[in-house]
Design brief:
Length: 357
């Protein structure tokens, strides 16, 4: 009898086989009239070598006590890394999807707001190997910031800062704030930029902002060149309203496919898809809404360890860190191949997740 193991795409495969030996040599499966029995199984390795995926969630019943933790391929919590206590304002709270980790770096960052014209950017050092993990810096912002990105080649953050008179894309490096693009006129008086409504290819300085228009007109997507600090394109969205956006960046061909998640078929089906040049949402993967009371997609949309993307589905009446049960469903999918989703139940409200490597 033989057991043998091999790795493929982050999975551990094992095989059990029964072979017959004739004359001291191993023959074919029909050797000596015996039929070999081969049983194959796939066992998911909790951790993928060299990959570090970090999630964030508030404690149930304590929205100001935020925990950062390592996640495995199925979004199980492997180890707690650190806790951060929100102390800036009595109404301060975290924002779904306003969380990023610096690729190949040593820290993550997240935003909070008090919904009254103040926001805060937190920088948190993280270590997988038992080193220091903890809060390192907090920057106060005069405005409401609901979206966050990390620049690939620096420690800077990028966000959309909304105030009563201005809406600006800004860069934050510790306490230094730099204006990238003023998009006030493109958003207008009735436009809304919600959590999940921005995406970025930082290595080519491209950024998109989705604007939900409240005057009955089409929603729009603003595309910017951050290096030139200007708006380069406006796309009118003609059908499904996005819940959260994602840009698939291909630096070799300079083609950046803009997509994200949306509800389709009268909000009965969840879908991931791309926005084409005509502003149409073209779904590439889709699936049922998980059963449960008022389950709805959140703004969470991120890259997990094995799949291409993952998004969150939680009861619509539950907020992160409330006293209500915080469990929900995480949905995994791929850009190409299978059109179906993988569903994983989790007992916590995942506000954000990011890969450091």
């Amino acid at each position: 009898f033989f057991f043998f193991f091999f790795f493929k795409d982050g999975f551990l495969f094992w095989s059990f086989s029964s072979f017959c030996f004739c004359g001291g040599t191993m023959k074919s499966f029909l050797c000596c009239g015996w039929i070999a029995v081969v049983v194959m199984a796939v066992v998911v390795v909790a951790r993928v070598e060299g990959k570090f995926w970090i999630g964030m969630s508030p404690l149930e019943g304590d929205s100001k006590n935020v925990t950062l933790f390592e996640l495995d391929v199925n979004a199980n919590i492997v180890q707690k890394l650190t806790n951060v206590i929100l102390k800036n304002d009595p109404n301060e709270h975290i924002i779904v999807d306003a969380y990023r980790c610096l690729p190949y770096g040593t820290f993550c960052m997240f935003l909070t707001t008090n919904d009254a014209g103040k926001s805060w950017l937190y920088n948190v050092t993280v270590s997988q190997q038992g080193g220091f993990s903890g809060l390192t810096h907090v920057t106060e912002l005069n405005g409401t910031a609901l979206n966050l990105h990390a620049e690939l080649f620096s420690n800077a953050a990028v966000t959309v800062l909304q105030s009563p008179k201005k809406i600006e894309v800004i860069r934050i490096l510790e306490d230094n704030i730099t204006l990238y693009v003023d998009i006030t006129s493109y958003v207008g008086s009735t436009g809304r930029i919600n959590p999940g409504f921005t995406t970025q290819c930082s290595d080519v300085d491209a950024m998109w902002v989705y604007v939900e228009n409240g005057d009955g007109s089409d929603d729009t997507i603003i595309q910017m060149d951050l290096l030139k600090r200007e708006v380069v394109d406006i796309t009118h969205v003609t059908d499904a309203r996005m819940i959260s956006m994602w840009a698939s960046c291909n630096d070799h061909t300079n083609v950046n496919a803009l997509g994200g998640i949306a509800m389709i078929n009268n909000n009965s089906v969840m879908a991931y898809g791309a926005i084409n040049n005509g502003g149409h949402f073209v779904e590439t993967s889709w699936g049922r809404v998980p059963s449960g009371e008022s389950m709805a997609m959140t703004a969470l949309l991120t890259q997990p360890l094995v799949f291409d993307y993952m998004f969150g589905v939680y009861p619509s009446q539950v907020t992160p860190g409330s006293s209500s049960p915080q469990g929900g469903v995480l949905v995994f999918g791929n850009f190409k191949g299978s059109q179906s989703f993988k569903y994983v139940d989790v007992p916590f409200y995942l506000v954000g997740a990011g890969r450091i490597s």
